[in-house]
Specification:
single chain; mainly alpha; 2 domains; 0% strand
């Protein structure tokens, strides 16, 4: 009676070990969230809901950008190292091992960014109703940008001791007009005349007083919008640089984690671990 030998054919496994990648991404996202929460608590941010935040100096904006770079480097360094160190060893050429460890760090970087973006979108969707309450067909919900950037100018524009009906609509309409002050052509004369009439009617001012107030707030709004645009450009620049540096750091630390895994050493002290027999 003959027996047939069964030959086990090894299955082709994925080159990526996703548990290690997810562990690194979670570690990076956790550190990033913690450091950003700290920065938000002490006001170290280029974007704030405070109406006077743009009065800060350029040095403060630079410090905020440098802190953003620090957060990205710290988070992605830890995430990349975790992904490389926790990956199971493979019997491959050392250069191929280092390349795969680096690729694990790079995928960890991308996954951490994706997780953070999804979390940010969820927070933004949750906070949108509070930031822009429904105001009917033409209310405060249509002037979110104006309320975030030129809220103080709108307050000063309609400041009055008399009660005002439907002030939310007047503020949203005035905000849409004042937002044109930073455009190339500025606010059209017809819109300026209409704004003067509205301010005079709502605040109970004479034509001359309304004209002076509108001119003053148009100039202030133009300056606020310019500073907001500059802050947005700086923020976008620092975010791009931080993410690109984060990719490089994730690759390097993942490869370093792989070398420590193969040598049985630990970061910093480089103590060699001798396994028990």
């Amino acid at each position: 009676m003959s027996s047939v030998a069964e030959v086990a054919v090894p299955l082709r496994s994925s080159h990526f070990q996703w548990p290690a990648i997810f562990a690194g991404a979670i570690a990076a996202a956790g550190i990033s969230f913690t450091l950003h929460a700290f920065a938000l608590g002490i006001g170290l941010s280029m974007v704030s809901t405070a109406p006077t935040w743009r009065d800060s100096s350029g040095a403060y904006w630079l410090l905020s950008g440098v802190y953003l770079l620090f957060v990205a480097l710290s988070a992605f360094a830890v995430g990349g190292y975790v992904a490389g160190r926790m990956r199971a060893p493979l019997n491959l050429d050392p250069l191929e091992m280092e390349f795969r460890d680096g690729m694990h760090g790079l995928i960890t970087w991308g996954l951490a960014i994706t997780m953070t973006a999804i979390l940010a979108l969820g927070v933004a969707a949750t906070g949108s109703p509070a930031a822009a309450p429904a105001g009917g067909s033409a209310g405060a919900a249509q002037s979110v940008a104006g309320e975030n950037i030129i809220a103080s100018e709108l307050d000063e524009l309609f400041r009055s001791d008399r009660p005002v009906d439907n002030i939310a609509y007047h503020r949203s309409e005035a905000a849409r007009i004042l937002m044109k002050s930073s455009s190339h052509d500025g606010i059209p004369a017809s819109d300026q005349d209409y704004l003067v009439q509205m301010v005079g009617r709502v605040a109970g001012l004479s034509s001359a007083q309304a004209q002076d107030r509108v001119d003053r707030e148009i100039a202030a709004s133009r300056q606020e919008l310019h500073r907001a645009r500059a802050a947005a450009v700086l923020q976008a620049f620092f975010i791009a640089v931080a993410l690109l540096l984060g990719a490089a750091v994730s690759w390097f630390t993942a490869a370093e984690g792989g070398r420590d895994r193969e040598r049985g050493t630990y970061p910093g002290a480089r103590v060699v671990h001798t396994p028990r027999l």
